[in-house]
Amino acid sequence: MRFQVIVAAVFWSGFVESRKVRGISSSYKRFYKERKSFLCIDGSKIIPFEQVNDDYCDCEDGSDEPGTSACPRGRFYCTNLGFRPHYIPSSRVNDGICDCCDASDEYNSPAHCQNTCWNLGQKERAYVEGQMRTLDEGLRLKQQLIEEGVLLWREKQAQLRELQQVAEDLQIKLEEHRRRKHEAERLKEQTLKALEAGDSGLRHQNRTETSIFQLLDSNKDGSITVDEVKTKVVLVHDEERLLSEDEALGLLGGGHQIDLTKFRRTLWDVLTRGDSVKIKDTPGSDDPHLEAADKAAEWEATNLKKVEEAYETVNMEISDLRKKLAIDYGTDWEFLFLNSQCYKLKVYEYIYTLCPFNQVTQKNTAGTEVSLGSLSISPHIHQPLEHISKVLPGQLSFPSEEVLPSAR
Amino acid sequence: MASFTERMVPVLVLWLAVCLAETWAVDRGNFKTCDQSAFCKRQRALKPGESPYRALLETMELTNTRLTLQLINDNNKVRLLLELYRLQGNITRVKINELKPLKPRYEVPDVLIREPPTEPLSLLSQDENGVVLSLGSESQRVIISARPFRLDIMEGSDVLMSLNSRGLLTFEHLRMRKDTFSYKVTSTVASVWDNIKRVFSSQADPEAEKKEEADPANQAETTKEEEEKVEDGMWEETFKSHSDSKPNGPSAISLDFSLPGVEHVYGIPEHADTLRLKTTENGDPYRLYNLDVFQYELYNPMALYGAVPVMLAHNTQRTTGIFWLNAAETWVDISSNTAGKTVFGKMLDYVQGSSETPQTDVRWISESGIIDVFLMLGPTPKDVFSQYASLTGTQSFPPLASLGYHQCRWNYNDQEDVQSVDAGFDEHDIPYDFIWLDIEHTDGKRYFTWDPHKFATPKEMLQGLMDKKRKLVAIVDPHIKVDSNYKIHNEIRSKGFYIKNKDGGDYEGWCWPGSASYPDFFRADMRAWWASMFAYDQYEGSMENMYTWNDMNEPSVFNGPEVTMHKDTVHGAWEHRDVHNLYGFYVQMATAEGLIQRSGGIERPFVLTRAFFAGSQRYGAVWTGDNAAEWDHLKISIPMCLSLGLVGISFCGADVGGFFKSPSTELLVRWYQTGAYQPFFRAHAHLDTPRREPWLFGPENTALIREAVRQRYTLLPYWYQQFYHAHRTGEPIMRPLWVEYPQDPATFAVDDEFLIGRDLLVHPVTEEGARGVTAYLPGKDTVWFDIHTFQKHNGAQNLYIPVTMSSIPVFQRGGSIIPRKVRVRRSSTCMEHDPYTLYVALNLQRTAEGELYIDDGHTFNYEKKEFIHRRLSFAKNILSSVNLAPDAQFTTRSWIERVVILGASKPSKVTLQTADGQDSQLEFDFDASMSVLTLRKPGMNAGADWTVMLQ
């Protein structure tokens, strides 16, 4: 019986002790063990223990008044059972405003504070659970996006490789075509040269009456007719114009055809003077070799151009793809899907269009659009993706119909 | 073209030089110089000399309360009526009006709190040269000299003040316009008729002839008047693109005052200038014309937002005041016979004994109205304050919370913004009482409305603030958007309450909402209607913790002459010209009345105004308008508020941080430290500036600002008591040193430090990069205690004080007791029931005195004697609290938690004796190094009688 009383007394006194020192956390209890005196926690002063929480500030550090507003730099511990404990400045003790959810800060105040910790705790737990669900959902979404991202990434990589292969092939082709074009041009050049050489030799050797006569006598019947003159002889100063019947007749001395003898006296003279008419100068035009070489060169040039263009296109595609692939889409490419998306956000009279990794624009109701620059997302902030999935549907129109045609 | 260029080169160079010197300044060209203001130019062209006015002594009438007398202008024979009153409390009132004006001239109503009670005047002597009247018992006399007219106020053999001694009394009498057709016809016909009449009468009626002779004035008047030349600007005046039609013609008045023995004059706010007024001979006069001056310049006499036509004159013997009750555009010229003299010159005069008495001459010029001047004869500064208060009333007693810190900016964007700023103060543990909403909170600058998106649920927002015991101020400007979908506009228009333009239509100007009209606040019915708009059921979204700010009430009209209203607009029988400086006064009056009415007459209002006039102190607070984030603007806040305090407007402050531009962190901190010790403590910022809430400048600066604001809050009991005192007496709260040390000439021009009440001396740090300040500690047998270190300094010395960024040099006068509340909380209301700490600073006689005033902090119940007012005194080692108002009743939960006695010696025992006769021993702590005795937790109720004995 006596033992029980003692135990009860010890219990009770222990209970009293922990009740008496208001505003401290359990980890600080050791500083406030009931003794005759109290040492300010900063060690600056010793005061009688009755002066702890007596609503007068004795310690410089405020440690003697953890449960009152007496010390200017003190703090009060809200236990907040059922919710999160936390410290508030001493100045909020008994100021008529409920700060601790357990109402412990307003123990001597007209404010009727309710203990709301359980509710808050429940709410917080519900919130945390919600957060967890959202997080899970987010993580699931993220996993999905990662998978998609990885696939897309691989696809793009494959595309890149393909393109690079194409480019390589094209390069080979290109070289082949260059070579062939070169060859064709060389051939053309040779033919032309040969022709020119033959031509001038001809002229040199056959600068005799007979050879010219033979040249003019297209049908080789031993006489030159008006028609033959008209096809082979032109005015010196106007090569393009055909001679008229009369002019041809004049050159033939008035007759419709002349033989070699007559030629010497008429046309030959005129030609040797060389100031009015000459033999039409069409070297190679009717040379079949030259014509073939020319066509071949042209063909090869066109071919080369086509290949070059194809090569350039492929290279541009490669560089575009590389640029896109160089962007940081997060460690697992979880942001890759954003690359082709745009979002709209309405703030008062403005509509903002945000295209991640691309442009941001602001459009007012009057329809004026202003570019606000480009939106780069640094995935290494590692904003949880669930956050985006949570925020976007509320504030942004997301995504289906509202998604703008992607930039590319 | 070449010559044009040549001419422009020097102009350009000058312009560039100006630009380089002052890259930022007011556009002076928008505002008139005296030369550009026709009446000022005309009046100023008159030089001192023999006055054309003569007192007609035979017209004198003396009753028990007043003397009347006619004055005649010998040049044009126009007669004036002089009235002279002796008012209670050593004030002489002189009124001069035309004897028979063509139409009535404006006399300012509503500024005087009542018809001032008079005291009998008695005639001492009279002869043909003048009369001598007694001003009561103090051997004070008024001497009216007849030829020329002059009025002197004497005490013994000293002249205190002379009127018209320089002959500058002028009265542009109202007249018919001569160059108009109708005038010509009437005047020609009249003169023809006069001539005919004269011819006939001289022959036929000798009686009439005699009459004519007996009244030569009439005849002379007509002939003389015709000789008067019509000057430019008499009947029409243009400034920039604005023309002023002046249908009443010239109407200016002017009078000079000589102040023998005076070298220091003060007052006539509002000007961004030194406390001591400068002489104006080499420039423009000080101008009083309420104007919205964009980016005002410092240290010049240009007009600003408000006007109080009161000047104080001071020397070691006496303080006097001149109150020129006129609401029209007014210019004040100041000259002095010693102003040009160097110290050496003055010394030479003294040595040679040849010095003439120093004298300051003042000349007031107003555009219209009458001369109605109150000569406040002191003799002490406090007498002048009480004399002025007896005329125009005292500072309104504001709600205690309005003495806390105010957080303002143009603009807090939306409710969320308000909430997050509010939360920011809690997070950083900085107290504040009021958050402010500028014009953007409204729906398209329609006052009394809310932006439907940004402030969709204002009551929710207000409730959130109320839960934290905090308050809000929303702006209500007097320009009303012309919009037929706006209820306020429709009602004002349908009631015909708008100011009319000269053609009778509603005046329209341009202001924040675009096209706007201006309610005629000069109409009592308009003001009553306006007040009713603040009722909770009228002003949607308003609650009892929402108060009001009246800006732009000069009135500001963006497209008007000098950014204000055309002078020829019409207020009933009067032109805007007559009443201009009163507009803001009435706006604030009507608004304050609205806030009182909405609570059924229970709650004290809080209304901030930018424009003001004499008497505005009765309606709330004033700030110094749109200043800038510059060190010089910080400095000028001191003389600007000191000047306002001298003329009754105590509740003054400047935008902390500076409105335009962005302050450096150092400037911002210094401004908080200064503002914390000025009566109205509000931070404000322009829309275009970066955010500057106190916690945006790093933890160190946040801590510095927090500390400055906390110092303010610990001293709130003292501030509140000062406001109560100002409300009772009219004494300024923030006051120049000379007010308390009137015989110490070293204090006369000090305006980089100031007193709060009698007991706190503040020398804020207002220099960039300051390492120290030199403060003048006044009082030969006075000691001052540094309120932070408790170090004691002797008075009558310049003290060099080394400073760091945390320093705010403030001293408590030895001989004073200051109550503080050292438990600084979220807002002043949260501190309502907190205990007091008494700071007892002993003087050389080891005595001290102070007061403690407590009431509910927000209602008019103090008028019903619901307050505690105690005298605290320390003498012979006994500190006691005595009831100063035994007939008052109030109970408080506050108690005395600590007594700190500065300059004490160590007692062996300290005993507390309470009213019930019980004695108890008090614990104490004595710091021998600083001689500071701290009594631990005496615990008596702050409203009780008690005695503490040191043995």
Automatic annotation (TrEMBL), chain B:
GO terms for biological process: carbohydrate metabolic process; N-glycan processing. Residues 730-818 form the Glycosyl hydrolase family 31 C-terminal domain. The keyword Endoplasmic reticulum applies. Residues 203-233 are annotated as: Disordered. One of its GO terms (molecular function) is Glc2Man9GlcNAc2 oligosaccharide glucosidase activity. Transmembrane segments: none annotated. Residues 1-25 form the signal peptide. GO terms for cellular component: glucosidase II complex; Golgi apparatus. It catalyses: N(4)-(alpha-D-Glc-(1->3)-alpha-D-Glc-(1->3)-alpha-D-Man-(1->2)-alpha-D-Man-(1->2)-alpha-D-Man-(1->3)-[alpha-D-Man-(1->2)-alpha-D-Man-(1->3)-[alpha-D-Man-(1->2)-alpha-D-Man-(1->6)]-alpha-D-Man-(1->6)]-beta-D-Man-(1->4)-beta-D-GlcNAc-(1->4)-beta-D-GlcNAc)-L-asparaginyl-[protein] + H2O = N(4)-(alpha-D-Glc-(1->3)-alpha-D-Man-(1->2)-alpha-D-Man-(1->2)-alpha-D-Man-(1->3)-[alpha-D-Man-(1->2)-alpha-D-Man-(1->3)-[alpha-D-Man-(1->2)-alpha-D-Man-(1->6)]-alpha-D-Man-(1->6)]-beta-D-Man-(1->4)-beta-D-GlcNAc-(1->4)-beta-D-GlcNAc)-L-asparaginyl-[protein] + beta-D-glucose; N(4)-(alpha-D-Glc-(1->3)-alpha-D-Man-(1->2)-alpha-D-Man-(1->2)-alpha-D-Man-(1->3)-[alpha-D-Man-(1->2)-alpha-D-Man-(1->3)-[alpha-D-Man-(1->2)-alpha-D-Man-(1->6)]-alpha-D-Man-(1->6)]-beta-D-Man-(1->4)-beta-D-GlcNAc-(1->4)-beta-D-GlcNAc)-L-asparaginyl-[protein] + H2O = N(4)-(alpha-D-Man-(1->2)-alpha-D-Man-(1->2)-alpha-D-Man-(1->3)-[alpha-D-Man-(1->2)-alpha-D-Man-(1->3)-[alpha-D-Man-(1->2)-alpha-D-Man-(1->6)]-alpha-D-Man-(1->6)]-beta-D-Man-(1->4)-beta-D-GlcNAc-(1->4)-beta-D-GlcNAc)-L-asparaginyl-[protein] (N-glucan mannose isomer 9A1,2,3B1,2,3) + beta-D-glucose. It is found in: Endoplasmic reticulum; Golgi apparatus. Its EC number is 3.2.1.207. Residues 396-721 form the Glycoside hydrolase family 31 TIM barrel domain. Its main location: endoplasmic reticulum. CDD domains: GH31_GANC_GANAB_alpha, GH31_N. Residues 82-333 form the Glycoside hydrolase family 31 N-terminal domain. Keywords: Endoplasmic reticulum, Glycoprotein, Glycosidase, Golgi apparatus, Hydrolase, Signal. Pathway: Glycan metabolism; N-glycan metabolism. Belongs to the glycosyl hydrolase 31 family. This is Neutral alpha-glucosidase AB. It comes from Amphiprion ocellaris (Clown anemonefish).
